Amino acid sequence: MDLEELRALLARHARPDMGTAIDGVLVSKVDRSSPPSPAMSGTVLALIAQGAKRIALGDRVYEYRAGQYLIASVDMPITGHFTEASPESPALGFGLVLRPAVVAEVLLRAAPGDLPPAGGGAAPGMAVCDAPEGLVDAVVRMVRLLDRPRDMAVLAPLVEREILWRLITGEQGGVVRQLGLADSGLSHVARAVRWIREHYTQSFRVEEVARLSGMSVSAFYRNFQEVTAMSPIQFQKQIRLQEARLLLATHPNDVTGVGYRVGYDSPSQFSREYRRQFGAPPSQDAARLRGSVPGASPALV
Question: Cys-Cys with 220: which of 1, 81, 214, 215 at CB 3.0–4.6 Å?
Fold first, then answer.
């Protein structure tokens, strides 16, 4: 497994915003451990070449380190931090945004019998696995393209499909395959997740969101909990609090107004739940956030 070459490539191409010249490819370099911080996971493959990271999703905790990858098949509110990172040995990671349309295209190209049998119901929306040699090799070839601009437009889409195929046929393939299936349990949950994210300030009844997602209430609740490790109401609360934190970073003197903007009718409830989530009341946390607005990049890489 050629992690040494991957480390050198990632270290050379890392930028503060994690972006690269290849659409959907992310590169990260972190030179210090930090306290756990909230973010959205993104829908992404995250492979660590050096260092280690811990992610909390609801009541589940995922840890992955050099030579392992994590898959997130739904954009979910998480808390995470690098547990092994220093200036002498920075954490280095590769990310690939998972696009359902491309996953579906790869699935359609597979011959009958090439795919492992699908399991029933919705798989968890996050999974960790050791990276097989074929996957690491494809990732190395993808990052090499950053040094070959002429080849990017033609070869990057081909390597992306190879990476997806390695994932789809790998140990956690079920998590990825569901992304490309229009009627999978994950696709129904993803529909509900999008609705909650777009309407997070509004109160809702679980029955209404179940109907919008095309499932019975019992199936919806079971699948939602399986994928996100949270109930729909808990998920909405996480989104509200994370949005509030983003707003407070730029409006630190308007705690009450921010609470109302994200859907809280009671300032005391907002302050109580905010403190429980972030370890400090809104005004104190806002002061701490000045100068370091949380970013919107996927937080797994």
Answer: 215
pLDDT, tens digit, 9 for 90 and up, residues 156-184: 999 999 999 999 999 888 888 888 876 67
Domain residues for the domain of 221 are 185-230
User: Which residues in 85-239 belong to E strands, given as ranges?
Assistant: 91-97, 126-130
Domain match, 223 and 106 both = no
The verdict on residue 44 lying in a domain is yes
DSSP at 131: P
Mean pLDDT of the region 90-109 = 93
270-297 pLDDT tens trace: 999 999 988 889 988 888 776 554 555 5
Identify whether residues 126 and 253 lie together within a single domain: no
Nearest to 14 by CA among 106, 82, 118, 90: 90
Burial 285-294 (b: 16+ CB within 10 A, else e): bbeebeeeee
Number of domain units in the chain: 3
- At residue 161, what is the residue type? R
116 and 209 part of one domain: no
Angle between helices 3-13 and 133-144 (to 10 degrees): 30
Residue 244 lies in a domain: yes
Q: What's the CATH number where 213 sits?
A: 1.10.10.60
Q: Does the pLDDT value for residue 50 go beyond 90?
A: yes
Q: Same domain, yes or no, for 216 and 111?
A: no
What pLDDT is stored for residue 139 in this prediction? 98
As a whole number of angstroms, the distance between CA 44 and CA 31 comes to 22
Name the pTM for this structure: 0.85
Output the six-digit token pair for 198: 């777009």
Sign of the dihedral defined by the CA atoms of residues 99, 104, 107, 108, in that order = negative
